[in-house]
Amino acid sequence: MIASLLPRNLRRTLAGQLLALAIALALGSIVILMIDENPLRVFATLIRGAFGDSEKIAGTLLQTTPIMICGVAACIGLRGGMFNVGIEGQLFLGGFAAAWVGFSFALPPVLHVLVAMAAAVAAGAAWVSVPAYFRVRFGANEVVSTILANYVAVLLTSYFTIFIFKRPGGWSETPPILPSAYLPELFSFSRLNMGLLVGLALAVAAALFFRFTATGYAVTMVGSAPKFAEYGGINVRRAGFGVLIASGAVGGLAGGVETLGVHHRFMEGFAPGFGFDGLIAALLANGSPIGTIFTALFFGALRAGSLLLEVDTTASREIITVIQALIILAVSADLLLRRKGDRTGGRRWKF
User: Fold this and answer.
1) What CA–CA distance (Å, rounded) separates 76 from 82?
2) Which residues contact 72 (CB under 8 A, 6 or more apart)?
3) Is the pTM of this model over 0.85?
4) Which of 78, 104, 186, 217 stands 20 to 30 A from 207 (CA)?
């Protein structure tokens, strides 16, 4: 009944993505059977580990927050026809910039958080500016340049952490940020913080921007029909550059939220895989910021629920990585089929 109220193209897109997800879970079940474990038991354990009680739900939302913000960053790029695969590196740079402001300056509490978050946003935007420039100036493939920038970002922040800003006598981590830079926690029993609300507000704001503003419509037009947009007087190169900068800025914000709200310092490998999970969540949501909230929750539940796997079953937590890889393959196949349909006059390809 509700599905009949949705546009036909949207129903087809949702059906394709749900089918891709179902295929991925079915193939994941086969892998689980191959390790002599019961798939139903594994999935039940995942659900219990993610939503079993209030603390587990808070843990799931804690994992969801950076994935959701990174997903919104990916959605911004996808809407403008740009595939920003460098969100992981932008997250690392943003997290380090926020930590540096957090432990280097003594500011009033609210102002300190705002300045640290602004530094994270600026770091993410600055890091993606080089791939963005080469994309619009020379037509360089942003997929290749942004994914290569990830490795540089991770190694650069590691160098800063180990050789320049390392906490005396500690592990490979910076000094802790001052309490005035902490993002407030939502519950006393969990590290879940205001970053969740920031991510939700960001997703809603992005959806409203693309739906109700002229600039948002222009960006969507550039992503779906660049030639038509150019004929309509839109500067396609400038729009593409702006889209990548905005996407990188949001990726940096995700790192700032992790630093200020969860770890209260920067450390090596402080947020492994959140950028890539966010990109997958955005693809699974077909570039919809609102849809990314729910797909990010799905991936957050997988991460949080996997903590219980090795306790209650014989399955390894790495089975989650296998399931995520299968989801990537299934969603990619669905996207390629829809793109082929667009070339042959079938379903339209759009985000």
Assistant:
1) 8
2) 199, 202, 203, 206, 250, 278, 282, 289, 292
3) yes
4) 186
CB 322 within 8 A of CB 27: no
DSSP state of 175: P
Are 161 and 174 within 8 A, CB to CB?
yes
Please enumerate in sequence order all residues whose Cβ is within 8 A of that of 148, keeping only pairs 6 or more positions apart, or say none.
none
Backbone angles phi, psi at 173, to 5 degrees: -150, 160
Provide DSSP, 273-338.
THHHHHHHHHHHTTT-HHHHHHHHHHHHHHHHHHHHHHHHSS--THHHHHHHHHHHHHHHHHHHHH
Is the backbone of residue 233 left (phi > 0), alpha (psi -120 to 50) or beta? left
40, two tokens: 């139903």
pLDDT in tens, the chain (351 residues): 444 545 555 566 667 777 878 888 898 899 889 888 888 998 999 999 999 999 999 999 999 999 999 999 999 999 999 999 999 999 999 999 999 999 999 999 999 999 999 999 999 999 999 999 999 889 899 999 999 999 999 999 999 999 999 888 767 899 999 999 999 999 988 999 999 999 999 999 999 999 999 999 999 999 888 888 888 888 889 999 999 999 999 999 999 999 999 999 999 878 888 999 999 899 888 889 999 999 999 999 999 988 888 788 877 878 888 888 888 888 777 767 766 655 554 444 333
Give burial (CB, 10 Å; 0-12/13-18/19+) of 172: middle
- Give the residue among 319, 301, 322, 298 at the shortest CA–CA distance from 310: 319
SS3 102: helix
- Nearest 5°: CA angle at 276, between 167 and 161? 15
